[in-house]
Amino acid sequence: MSWSSDSGLDLVFALIGVLMGGVFVLSSWRSSLKGTDLKNDPRIKNLIWATMVFLAAFFGRWEKLLDTNDLNHTRLALFYLIPLLITVFVGVAAISVMIFARFASMRRVYATRYGAESLGAVLDYLHYGYKHYQEEYEAPLRQENEERLRRFRELNAEGSRRLAVDILAVESYRQGPSEALRGALCRQILDHIRLVVQSYTAMDTKVRLNANIMVAVATAQATEDDWEQVRFAYQEREDYSHLLILKYYASPEGQQHFAVPVVDSAKFPKWRDWVLFGGPDAFLREAVLVIQTSNLDFAKHIPQTIKDEVRSYFDGKEGLRSFACLPVLGEGSLRGIVNVESDQEHIFQESEEVQSEIASVLQPFCVLLGSLAQ
Question: What is the pLDDT of residue 325?
C-alpha cells in the first residue's frame, strides 16, 4: 500500500501540528519567565522544535519511506504549519481572555488593590508567563481571602459574645419593661453593632463608626409631632406609607433627630423611581444597602430642590463618608432601619461578598432591636 498526499499523510502532519501547537502553548508560558535569558526561554526552545518538524516535513525523504513518488512537500509543510499556528493562536487567545475576564472580576471586587487595567494582566502573562501572573495577581487575592476568612471567624466570635449579652438584657427587660430601660438597651445594642463592625476593620484603627436606628411609623398612626420632624418630603402626606424616625444612637456624637418619608409602594408601582436612597430605599427593598456619600444616586423623579437639600445635609456631616442600611424585623414585619455610619469610604469593604458576611453577623442584633422598636 502506498501513502500519498491524498491518502492520509496530510492528516498525520495536521495532527502533529495540533499536538505541537498544544505543547507550545502549555509549556511555553507555564512557568514564570521573568529574568529568564533567551538561551533558557522555553518559548525559544519550543520554537526550535516546531521549526525542526517543519523542516522535516519540507525536506524529509518521505517518498522512500512511504514507497511513493507522488509527494508534495510544500503541501505537507502547510498541513503541519497551519494547524500549528491556529492551535497556538487559539490557545494563547483563550488563556488571555480567561485572564482578562478573571482580572476584570477581581478589579470590580477589589478595586483598591487592583488598580491596573485588565489588559495589563494579559500582557504580563504573554511577556512573563502564567506562573508570574498567578504570583503577581492571584496569590495576593488568595492571601486576602485567607485573611478575610480569619477575620470573619473572629467577627463571628465577637458578635456571638456581644449577642449573648444583649439577649440576656432583652429577656431581663421583658420582666420589667420601661421607656428608659428600652432606650438604654437600644443604645447598647447599637453600640455592640458598631463594635462588631469595628472589630472587622480592626486593621484600620483610625476609622470612626456610629450606629442609629430609624423606627418605622405608619403614616396613618403618625402624630403631628412626628410630621413636624419630617425632612426631604416631596409628596403629599397620603402618598407616603411610613415615616422613618431617628430614635437612638450608639454614640451621641453627631446625632440628629428627624424623620424621612417612605413613598407608598401601593400607590407608586414604579416606586424605585420615586424613593429616597438610603433608609427609605432599604425599607422598601427589605435589603441591605451601602451608600457612598461622595456618589449619591437619586431616583429619577426626586425633585432638584430635594436633591440640593440632601446634598447640603451630607456636606454638613464631614465625618460621614459611607453608611450601611440594614432592615430591622420584628414580629414578622419591618420595624425600621439600622444605619451604620463611617468616616471612611466602603464601610463594609468593597466586596459584595464581604458586605453580605458582615450583614449576616449583624442581622440577629437587628432582630433584637426589632423586638424593642416602637
Answer: 95
Mean pLDDT of 310-318: 89
Q: What is the 3-state secondary structure (H, E, C) of 322-335?
A: EEEEEEEEECCEEE
Distance between CA 228 and CA 54 in Å, rounded? 87
217 closest CA partner among 363, 70, 333: 333
Return the number of other C-beta atoms located less than 10 Å from residue 236's C-beta. Answer: 7
Nearest to 279 by CA among 255, 246, 304, 319: 246
What are the cell numbers at 88?
497556538
Give me the CATH topology for the region 148-372.
Answer: Beta-Lactamase (3.30.450)
Cα angle: 152, vertex 156, 157; to 5 degrees: 120
Tell me what pLDDT residue 35 has: 57
Q: Domain limits of the chain?
A: 5-128, 148-372
> Is the distance from CB of 329 to CB of 311 less than 8 angstroms?
no
> What pLDDT does residue 4 have?
45
DSSP 3-state of 101:
helix
**pLDDT tens digit string along 195-225?**
888 877 655 557 889 999 999 999 999 999 9
pTM of the predicted protein model: 0.64
Q: Taking the CA atoms of the chain, what radius of gyration do you get in angstroms?
A: 32
Amino acid at 76: L
Mean per-residue pLDDT for 168-179?
Answer: 90
Tell me, what's the pLDDT at 228?
95
Q: C-alpha grid cell for residue 152?
A: 470573619
254: pLDDT strictly greater than 90: no
Contacting residues for 263 by C-beta, under 8 A, at least 6 apart: 235, 239, 240, 241, 271, 274, 275, 280, 284
Q: State the Cα–Cα distance between residues 189 and 116, nearest whole angstrom.
A: 41
Q: Which residues contact 153 (CB under 8 A, 6 or more apart)?
A: none
Contacts 24+ apart (CB under 8 A), 55-64: 57/13, 62/9
**pLDDT of amino acid 361:** 87
SS3 247: strand
